From TrEMBL:
Protein name: NAD(P)-binding protein
InterPro entries: Epimerase_deHydtase, NAD(P)-bd_dom_sf, NAD(P)_dehydrat-like
Classification via Pfam families: Epimerase (PF01370)
Source organism of the structure: Lophiostoma macrostomum CBS 122681
Domain NAD-dependent epimerase/dehydratase intervals: 8-284
Length: 391
């Protein structure tokens, strides 16, 4: 483990991507400031098995095991309202890097303007301003979404042929990028907010590239990452019931024959997703010069040229039927052979990201991700049957 890489602030640290980034950053030698919205989230994070070795003697459950570590490698900041002016000023004080993961899922009962669109846009602005005020931040990573690439008004007409390519130069949907409140639905608001943030941040980066002699408005580099659907085990989940409830929609559909998900913009193992985010902070590995050659990084597994959505889904379904035959026969799993997402317009090609950030190592494919989720679920089920479940 490399020591002394500096302090990185991670928003949404109790979420799926955020928590995985916390673990990966600590293992990579960074100190981490976890930014959450509620005090209760701190306790949840601190219970994480992978974080125990990074807790100091005063908080570790077995202080005698902390001979070489008196202080935590982890600290916390609570930002209840990330839309408030100056919301992140204190939270980013003294940090060297920022990974901004926190966001809002477009729940049907949310107000499209005030509870989805504005939080995304205002929190982005607050991160930029706080990072600038800090005087210490050198690089900011923003987690984005494939939802910015499509127009919700197209409905479920995008098909599953995967004729479009989602790579480091994929284009944001221009109609959605110009959408402003009032916005008709939560789904519209989510797509519009992501599109607005992505185009705004890209314009900042491009203005610096186009006029290199002019001073940058921000004294740090900006990286945007588009992840696919995040798939994989979570050590914060302790029962098979909770695992099934919180499992990603793709794995749930193929393992339990649940309703079809609506969209798929690629897929990524949670650990691969975290690795892309954290490795992107390394200014020697990912130089500013290399960043000028791409619009964003893609955290999603590459699909073979010529494959359709049915090929991707079929490979995973066949794997479940073959490798978990006993569980399928007993009804533990029910293969969702035809439950592939309704809209799969993009074939992911993340080879450039893999070369730049992962040293050429390929990210895991959908079938491999689902296999790990299935094994994780069965492990929790076995522990429950033995009466050994945690929590």
């Amino acid at each position: 483990m490399t020591q002394g890489r500096g302090l990185v602030a991670i928003t949404g640290a109790n979420g799926t991507i955020g928590y995985a980034c916390v673990v990966h950053a600590l293992r990579a030698g960074y100190r981490v400031r976890c930014i959450v919205r509620r005090e209760s989230a701190i306790e949840s994070i601190e219970r994480g098995p992978s974080l125990q070795e990074f807790l100091g003697r005063d908080r570790h459950p077995n202080p005698e095991e902390r001979d070489g570590q008196e202080k935590d490698s982890i600290e916390f900041a609570v930002v209840p309202d990330n839309t408030a002016p100056g919301a992140y000023d204190k939270a980013l004080s003294g940090v060297r890097f920022v990974v901004h993961v926190a966001g809002v899922w477009p729940m049907p009962h949310y107000d499209p303007d005030t509870e989805i669109y504005e939080p995304f846009v205002k929190s982005m602005d607050n991160i930029l301003q706080a990072a600038k005020k800090s005087g210490t931040v050198r690089r900011v990573v923003f987690t984005q979404a494939g939802a910015a690439l499509v127009n919700p008004d197209d409905g479920d007409t995008l098909g599953t042929d995967m004729q479009l390519v989602l790579d480091e130069h994929v284009q944001v949907n221009p109609s959605v990028a110009t959408m402003h409140p009032p916005i008709p639905s939560p789904h519209h608001a989510y797509c519009a907010a992501k599109a607005r943030c992505m185009t705004h941040l890209r314009s900042i980066s491009r203005s610096c590239q186009d006029t290199p002699s002019s001073p940058s408005p921000y004294p740090f580099s900006i990286i945007q990452i588009i992840p696919g659907t995040v798939i994989g085990p979570s050590e914060l989940i302790t029962s098979p019931k909770e695992a099934k409830e919180k499992m990603d929609r793709m794995s749930k559909a193929v393992l339990f024959n649940t309703p079809k998900p609506r969209y798929l913009f690629g897929f990524v193992h949670v650990e691969d997703c975290a690795t892309v985010h954290v490795n992107a902070l390394d200014e020697e590995r990912v130089t500013d010069e290399e960043l000028r050659k791409v619009d964003w990084l893609i955290a999603a597994g590459t699909s073979p040229v010529g494959w359709t959505g049915r090929d991707v889904w079929g490979e995973a379904a066949e794997m479940v039927d073959r490798e978990f035959k006993g569980e399928v026969q007993r009804g533990v799993f029910e293969v969702g052979w035809d439950k592939m997402p309704i809209n799969m317009p993009y074939r992911v090609d993340s080879t450039r990201t893999e070369k730049l950030v992962l040293g050429g190592e390929a990210m895991r494919g959908f079938a491999e991700c689902v296999r790990e989720v299935a094994e994780w679920y069965l492990g929790l089920l076995k522990l429950e049957q033995k009466g050994e479940g945690r929590g």
